[in-house]
Amino acid sequence: MSTDPALAAAPAAFDEQPHEYDAILLLGFGGPEGQDDVIPFLRNVTRGRGIPDERLEEVAHHYRHFGGVSPINRQNHELRDALAAELDRRGIDLPVLWGNRNWDPTLPDALREAEAHGFRRILALATSAYASYSGCKQYQENIDDALAETGLAGRLTIDKARPYFDHPGFIAPFVEALRGGIAELREKIPGLDPAQDVRILFATHSVPNSYTGDFGPHPEALGGAGAPADTVARSGVPGAAAGIGAYEAQHLAVSAAVAEAAGEGAAWDLVYQSRSGPAHQPWLEPDINDFIAEIPKGSAKAIVIVPVGFVSDHMEVLWDLDTEAIETAGEHGLEVVRVPTPGTHPAYVSGLIDLVLERRDGTPVAERASELALGPWFDVCGEGCCDTEERQAAVRAHRARAMQAADA
Ligand SMILES: CC1=C(CCC(=O)O)c2cc3nc(cc4[nH]c(cc5[nH]c(cc1n2)c(C)c5CCC(=O)O)c(CCC(=O)O)c4C)C(CCC(=O)O)=C3C
Ligand SMILES: [Fe+2]
Q1: From ligand 2's centre to the CA of 62, what distance in Å?
Q2: For residue 137, what is the domain's CATH number?
Q3: How far is it, in rounded angstroms, from Cα 100 to Cα 302?
Q4: Nearest-5° angle of CA 9, CA 14, CA 17?
Q5: d(Cα 105, Cα 25) in Å, to the nearest integer?
Q6: Which of 64, 130, 176, 187 has a CA positioned 20 to 30 A from the CA of residue 142?
Q7: Which residues make up the binding site for Fe(2+) (predicted)?
Q8: Both 249 and 207 in a single domain?
Q9: 105 and 88 in one domain?
C-alpha cells in the first residue's frame, strides 16, 4: 500500500455510513448550444493539452453539421426535471442542482448556488455509468477543482455516487431497447431468425488503454466490510483473468446480461467508437466501423447497435452511430437499427434515486441493488480502480495540489 500522505487521507472504497444530504448534484459533460460555442466548448474539453484551434475545427464538423448545437444540455435538463418529479413522487425533499464539466451551467456555478442556499453536503450523480478515467475519476477531479476554485473546500462536502453500470435501473432500459430493436428488424425482414441473421453490437466510447483501470482486487476494498474477496473470480467475465481493464470488464458484463435477456440467441460483440488522440497511442478496439466492414458477407442480414456506454442520445450517438456506423452498415448491405439509450426512462430515473438513498442511508454493500456479479462497484475511487499506474501518479499529484489549494 502507498504511504503517500495525499492518498492515505483518501477515504475508504465503500462508504456504508449514513449521511444527511442537502441536495443532489447532476454532474454532466456539457455541450455547445450554437455555432459560436463550438470552439470555446472544444477548448474546454481539451484544456491543458495545447491543441490549436485549427485542429479543434476538424473535430467541430459534427457539431457544425447540427447547427453547433449538441442535444446533451437539453437531455440533462430533462433528466434533472425527471429526477425532481421522481423525488416529489416518493416524498423526498431534496433539490437537484446541475453542473457540467465543459459548459454552462458549470460545476463551480452549481457549487456557488449550493453555498447560497447554505448546503453543506451534496451527493453527485454523474451521467456516466462506468469506471474509467473519463467517466469516473475525471469527474472526481472536476469536483476537487471546482471546490478549490470557489474556495468552498472544507465548507461543502461532495460525495459521488458509485459507477452504476450494474444497477437494474440502468440495465432494464437496454433490455427493453434491444427487444424493441429486434422487433423492428422482424418487421423489416420477414422470416428473420435472430440467432442466424442478426449481430448485436454493443457500442461504447473508446478510451486510451491507460484510462481503463486495473481490473483486479481493489486494494482498499480487500480490507473493507462486505468487500469481494476476489473481484476477478466474482466477475464471471471471459478475459477478466487475463488482465483487462475495469472499463472493458464492466461493459462486457452489461452486454452479456442484456444479450442474455433480450438477444434471442443472436451473436454479440462489444465494439468501440469515437476514438481520437494521436495515432501512435493505443486505444480500445475494435472500432465499430472496422468491425462492421469485417462481418463476413452473407453471414448476417442485420445488426442492432446498442449504445451501452451512454446514458443519453447525445452527439457521440447521433454522429458516430446514427451517421457514420449506419452508413457503414449500408455500404456492407446490412439492415441496421440503433436502439435508444436510457434517457429519462422511468427505471433509470428511479434507479438514480435509489443510488441516492443507498448513500444517504449507508446501505451495507451486500444489500445494494446490483444485477451483475461484478457489482456493486466502489463508492470512492482508490488506487487501481479507474487507473493504471501512470494515471495514479497524476491523480496523486492532482490530489496533493487540490489539498494545498484548499489549505491556502
Ligand atoms: C469514456 C468517455 C465518455 C463516456 C462517459 C461520459 O459521459 O463521461 C465520453 C462522453 C462524451 N464525450 C463527448 C464529447 C467529446 N469527447 C472528446 C474527447 C474524448 N472523450 C473521451 C472519453 C469519453 N467521452 C476521451 C478519452 C477523449 C479524448 C480526450 C480526453 O482524454 O479527454 C471530445 C474532444 C474531441 C475529440 O477528441 O474527438 C469531445 C467533443 C460528449 C458530449 C457529446 C455531446 O456534445 O452531445 C460526451 C457525453
Ligand atoms: Fe473509479
Answers
A1: 30
A2: 3.40.50.1400
A3: 37
A4: 90
A5: 12
A6: 64
A7: 205, 316
A8: yes
A9: yes
> Which ligand is in closest contact with the Cα of 316?
1
Q: Tens digits of per-residue pLDDT, 261-312?
A: 999 999 999 999 999 888 888 888 899 999 999 999 999 999 999 999 999 9
Same domain, 96 and 41: yes
* Position 226, amino acid: G
Angle of CA points 99, 22, 403, to nearest 5°: 65
Q: Which of the listed residues 338, 357, 372 is the one where a domain comes to its end?
A: 338
31 lines ligand 1 (CB under 6 A): yes
Note the ipTM here: 0.94
Assigned C-alpha cell, 77: 435538463
What integer best gives the mean pLDDT of the chain? 86
| Residue carrying the nine cell digits 427505471 | 347
Domains held by the chain: number: 2
Beta sheet of 157-160, edge-to-edge order: 96-100, 23-28, 121-126, 157-160
Choosing from 54, 107, 274, 275 the residue with most ligand 1 atoms within 8 A of its CB, the one to mutate for a pocket test is: 274
Tell me if 45 CB under 6 Å of ligand 1.
yes
81 and 149, same domain (yes or no): yes
The residues with which 336 forms a beta bridge, in sequence order, are: 303
The CA distances from residue 162 to 130, 192, 339, 377, in Å, are: 9, 40, 25, 6
CA of residue 202 to ligand 2 center, whole Å:
22
Residue 269 cell numbers, joined: 460483440
CB 70 within 8 A of CB 314: yes
CA–centroid distance, residue 132 to ligand 2 (Å): 6
Helix axes 107-116, 138-150, angle to 10 degrees: 50
List the single range of 294-308, 333-347, 389-403 with lowest mean pLDDT: 389-403
Return the exposure string of 257-293: e unless at least 16 CB atoms fall within 10 Å of the residue's CB, then b. bbbebbbbebbbbbbbbbbeeeeeeebbebbbbebbe
Judged by its nearest atom, the ligand closest to the C-alpha of residue 29 is 1
Ligand 1 near 59 CB (within 6 A): yes
* Host domain of residue 259: 168-338
Residue 210 Cβ contacting ligand 1 at under 6 Å: no
- The verdict on the CB of residue 51 being under 6 Å from ligand 1 is no
